[in-house]
Specification:
- The protein is mainly alpha-helical.
- The chain contains 13 helices and two strands, in the order H-H-H-H-H-H-H-H-H-H-H-H-E-H-E.
- The termini are far apart.
Length: 323
């Protein structure tokens, strides 16, 4: 954001292409950033149209790298883990199924992980009150109605409506402050999670972490515009970053400890000491961040097939989930 993609185009090309081949989340981040930045520069600001060639090169490099990742055997396996059922669904049916589930995961007011979107809503109201005074009354009332309906209905489509409301409000704030170059980042935040609607892994919460991280940054931005709260917001920003890092460490330290126990059982099978792999269960709430490994009961589940191939397990080996 500080230097822009066009300041050093060659470096930008390699960074964007590299991030697009790392994983699906970074690929989505890069592609949406390129499209959004190009729209702001070429359409909104009407800057040098010759830069379209550079943006096209950025996009071509990122898309090619993403396709290399998307067409890999592991991705193909995930797309068909439940047979051809997902592939046979129409685009509309996929959206109708996945969007409310993803929205519920991100904005469900009864989920403790979703405190960040609520703080973001508070920051939106705070910004409007400080910027427009009494004129913001309609916005405040509408916001409270939206939150109230979410609590009462607890419905995925209602959460989706709240998400759209938050998106439009944040875009307006960036526009009002003259920070239109930040607008692509709000779309990136949503794309990171809602892109899962195109895959059978829409139940996964992994990309939601990055969405909430960006929401946290937008919340800080909304508060930071008013100097009397700048020190408090700086402290909250540091606490938020430290808390996020600690949260990640706790999650993956626990999952790592479970993996070590599983590895010991796998070693026993490979050494002929046992004919059963005892897969230690990943307990809630950590199982939300690694759902595949808790599904050993179905031989049709794609993760089991990949699990057996990866470790070279002998035929007929049993896989049991244990506490």
């Amino acid at each position: 954001y500080k230097f822009g993609l066009l300041k050093k185009p060659i470096l930008s090309f390699f960074i964007l292409s590299l991030s697009s081949i790392l994983c699906e989340s970074t690929a989505i981040f890069s592609i949406v950033l390129i499209i959004g930045d190009a729209f702001i520069h070429l359409v909104v600001l009407r800057e040098n149209k010759k830069d379209l060639i550079k943006y096209f090169a950025f996009l071509l490099g990122s898309v090619c790298c993403f396709l290399f990742l998307y067409l890999s055997p592991s991705t193909a396996s995930r797309m068909t883990w439940n047979g051809d059922a997902w592939l046979e669904m129409s685009f509309i049916d996929k959206m109708l199924l996945a969007i409310p589930i993803i929205s519920n995961s991100l904005f469900n007011c009864f989920n403790i992980y979703n405190l960040i979107p609520l703080f973001m809503v508070i920051s939106l109201m705070y910004f409007m009150i400080n910027s427009f005074g009494k004129k913001s009354l309609i916005f405040i009332i509408l916001t409270l109605i939206m939150i109230g309906l979410c609590f009462v209905l607890n419905n995925g489509w209602m959460y989706f409506a709240l998400g759209i409301y938050i998106l439009i409000s944040q875009v307006f704030i960036f526009y009002k402050n003259g920070d239109i170059k930040l607008i692509p980042f709000i779309f990136i935040a949503y794309a990171l999670s809602y892109a899962l609607a195109l895959t059978p892994e829409y139940l996964a919460l992994r990309t939601g972490f990055f969405t909430l991280l960006l929401f946290g940054m937008f919340t800080i931005y909304n508060f930071y515009n008013f100097k009397r709260f700048s020190v408090i917001i700086k402290i909250l920003f540091v606490l938020f970053l430290v808390g996020s890092i600690v949260f990640e460490i706790i999650i993956y330290s626990y999952i790592g400890s479970v993996k070590n126990v599983r590895d010991d059982s796998i070693t026993d099978v490979l050494n002929g000491k046992s004919n059963t792999v005892y897969v230690k269960e990943i307990k809630a709430p950590f199982n939300k961040f690694h759902i595949d490994a808790n599904e050993p009961s179905s031989r049709d589940y794609w993760a089991i097939v990949m699990f057996e191939k990866y470790y070279g397990l002998p035929e007929g080996v049993k896989i049991e989930l244990t506490e």
